[in-house]
Write a structure and sequence with these properties.
six-stranded mixed beta sheet, Rossmann fold, alpha/beta, 296 residues, six-stranded parallel beta sheet
């Protein structure tokens, strides 16, 4: 049975959405979306759909969503967030500025709209876990310049961060991101070199790691936190493991820490509400359920 037939069989005529990627078996989106389906007694389904990183495969995905009556949309993970853009009927302004889509919503007329909820998820988790942090109080340091960084940098600019120090192992990629996302006016995106990453922490109010460094089976993030103020928040979007070396080091010196699971949970809210209807929020019970699914 091909993956589309499998998904249709699982849905059994109910409204459905899915996480789409290659690979996709590792995704915990079914656990977090399934929690809300059960909590709100929604007769729907959220599954997994492996789609190869090929134009023809993405065209097949789009055609499937359009023609299948009970399809409501999908989430997108690597490597499809950028390549899907030209195949959709509409891209909302936030996703257009970020240059990536992580959520597709099927409209009543069958057309497909691309959205990006990563920045929303990032800020919601930050507000929940570090409510004292204010965006206009000082510089922010962001490590990395990939797809997640684009959404995070865009959201931080939107809430009024005065200076964002962007550091990436490939400096040219960071420069391109900075040029694309620097807003008009007085806000600044300053691109530093990877070798300067520890020095650039001086005076920062927030440090965000968007790289894969520290993730399970990846090298750890090598950074000296000595210049980071003890009042600063440290946010690592990695969620496997939940307690990365960066967070452990920051916690040991008294910094407030935010792990990556909150962003994962909160970014799923807008999609669920668009596909299935009920308004939802992130709860301690849901976090516990998804953390257990991670084996954390």
């Amino acid at each position: 049975m091909n993956p589309y037939d499998t998904l249709l069989a699982e849905a059994a005529g109910r409204p459905f959405a899915a996480i789409v990627g290659w690979p996709v078996e590792h995704s915990r989106s079914p656990a977090l979306q399934g929690f809300w389906l059960k909590q709100h007694h929604v007769d729907g389904h959220y599954g997994r759909l492996p789609v190869k990183p090929e134009r023809a495969a993405l065209e097949e995905l789009v055609a499937f969503l359009r023609k299948t009556p009970n399809a409501r949309g999908c989430n997108l993970t690597l490597p499809h967030k950028v390549e899907i853009l030209p195949l959709l009927d509409r891209i909302d302004p936030v996703a257009r500025r970020i240059g990536a889509v992580n959520t597709i919503v099927k409209q009543a007329d069958g057309t497909l709209e691309g959205r990006n909820t990563d920045g929303f998820g990032f800020l919601e988790a930050l507000k929940y876990n570090a409510p004292h942090w204010m965006p206009d109080t000082g510089p922010v340091v962001v490590l990395g310049a990939g797809g997640a960084a684009r959404a995070i940098v865009s959201s931080l600019m939107d809430v009024g961060v005065p200076e964002l120090r962007l550091v990436n192992r490939t400096r040219g990629t960071a420069i391109d991101l900075g040029v694309a996302l620097t807003p008009p006016g007085g806000q600044r995106i300053v691109v530093g070199s990877w070798d300067e990453r520890s020095e650039l922490l001086d005076g920062a109010t927030l440090l965000v790691n968007t790289t894969s460094l520290g993730m399970k089976d990846q090298p750890g993030l090598d950074i000296d936190l000595a210049k980071l103020p003890h009042e600063a928040v440290v946010y690592d979007i990695v969620y496997v493991p939940l307690e990365t070396y960066l967070l452990a080091a920051a916690r040991s010196r008294g910094n407030r820490c935010v792990d990556g699971l909150g962003m994962l949970l909160h970014q799923g809210r807008p999609g669920f509400e668009a596909w299935f209807g009920p308004r939802v929020d992130v709860s301690a019970a849901q976090r516990h359920a998804v953390a257990a699914d991670l084996g954390a």
